[in-house]
Specification:
single chain; alpha+beta; Arc Repressor Mutant, subunit A; Sulfite Reductase Hemoprotein, domain 1; five-stranded mixed β-sheet; four-stranded antiparallel β-sheet; about 15% strand; globular; binds iron/sulfur cluster
């Protein structure tokens, strides 16, 4: 009824109705339904939102036009983009998307303006309901050591961490860390960031694979570690969750990941793209079946770079892959139909070479107030001690 009233009051675009009612602004899974209701309520007079195809709402260009203009004019900062392409008008909603795009395009040459970043990206941690942060160290392939576990336990004791929890991505989450403690926690952990925040490559979930499992036909753990070592921390239009399983029993859920790899008989590997198991559930499309882990890494990198360069801001692979079409993606990635495969590989390599663990900033803050408390902490009910 709120949607229908909004349309009745004269708002005729889907984006306008969403802004007016907040519908579709949470997890976003009901956006299609909202669009259908607006369409129906407007009785065929729904209007196309002019910004629907823009990469970000504050710059009137689609992604390809925007990238061409940025490259042509050498725009290396968010404020330079607003000045040159948006008549000098800053738009807060556009900043995160522009930071991501500029970092992807320029790498080390990108000119950072800290205020352009969302809080999670400024402090490399995920803000929680009460204003504290969660800290998830990298744990490639879900593998850890007694020594790392001891250090994590010591940190949890030292900072009175209220909740230590295993994540769905096979890492350990320390919840309830105060902003000013982040650099000290990272230093004491002495482990790299697991990137459990921001729009970037997150993790590669793996099953135990052929080393230990009786059914395993491929070393999924080793391949998962290799993939994470190569693509760790990559900026992308939306978060990227990956997985590798050692056989089609799929214990690591590779069929429903942005990129999932499944070992099959004969030492071969299937690569699936565009899967999801969140608010939206989708089995990935088969991109290719290849003979070696090296080929998996090459094709994964080529697809991820194509996605980074062509997906809209916040467009997950489960929307991107069907939008472009798996046949078209196969042609580009496998057959090099557009003659861009080598360039995609080279640009991915450049991004890989520029990787730097963001938690190293703990020792040398990028800005004086980077880790100063800014938000009042909201007292939350104490976490109950859960008996095992
Ligand atoms: S997916 Fe296959 S190899 Fe991996 S743990 Fe499950 S049964 Fe074993």
């Amino acid at each position: 009824s709120a949607l229908v009233s909004a349309v009745g009051s004269g708002v005729k675009t889907v984006a306008g109705v969403m802004d007016a009612t907040r519908a579709g602004k949470g997890c976003g899974s009901c956006k299609t339904l909202v669009a259908q209701i607006v369409e129906w309520a407007a009785g065929g007079e729904a209007e196309q939102d002019p910004a629907a195809n823009w990469y970000v709402p504050g710059v009137p260009m689609d992604k390809a036009e925007l990238m061409a203009a940025i490259r042509q004019q050498g725009l290396r900062s968010v404020s330079a983009v607003f000045d040159a392409l948006a008549g000098g008008r800053e738009d807060a909603k556009s900043k995160m998307g522009l930071v991501s795009l500029l970092r992807m395009m320029w790498g080390d040459e990108y000119v950072d303006e800290r205020d352009a970043r969302f809080i999670n990206d400024r402090v490399h941690a995920n803000i929680q309901k009460d204003g504290t942060f969660s800290v998830v160290p990298q744990m490639k392939g879900g593998c850890t050591t007694p020594e790392q576990l001891r250090r994590i336990a010591d940190v949890a004791d030292k900072y009175a961490v209220p909740l230590v929890k295993l994540t769905g991505g096979q890492r350990i989450d320390l919840l309830g860390i105060r902003k000013e403690d982040l650099p000290k926690v990272w230093a004491d952990l002495d482990m790299p960031s697991g990137y459990a925040y921001g729009k970037s490559f997150r993790t590669v979930k793996t099953c135990v694979g052929s080393d230990y499992c009786r059914f395993g036909v491929g070393d999924s753990t080793a391949l998962g570690i290799a993939i994470e070592s190569r693509f760790q921390g990559l900026e992308s239009p939306a978060k990227l969750k990956l997985a590798v399983t050692g056989c089609p029993r799929n214990c690591a859920e590779a069929y429903v990941k942005d990129l999932g790899v499944v070992a099959v008989e004969g030492g071969r590997w299937e690569i699936y793209i565009g899967g999801a198991a969140g608010a939206h559930v989708r089995k990935g499309d088969l991109l290719a079946t290849v003979d070696s882990p090296d080929e998996v890494v090459t094709l994964a990198g080529r697809f991820l770079q194509y996605y980074r360069e062509n997906a809209n801001w916040l467009e997950r692979t489960y929307a991107f892959v069907p939008r472009v079409g798996i046949d078209r993606i196969r042609a580009i990635i496998l057959d090099d139909s557009d003659g861009i495969a080598a360039a995609l590989d080279a640009r991915m390599q450049a991004s890989v070479d520029e990787y730097r663990d963001p938690w190293l900033e703990g020792g040398e803050p990028a800005a004086p107030g980077q880790f100063r408390t800014a938000l009042p902490l909201i007292p939350l009910p104490l976490v109950p001690v859960r008996e095992s």
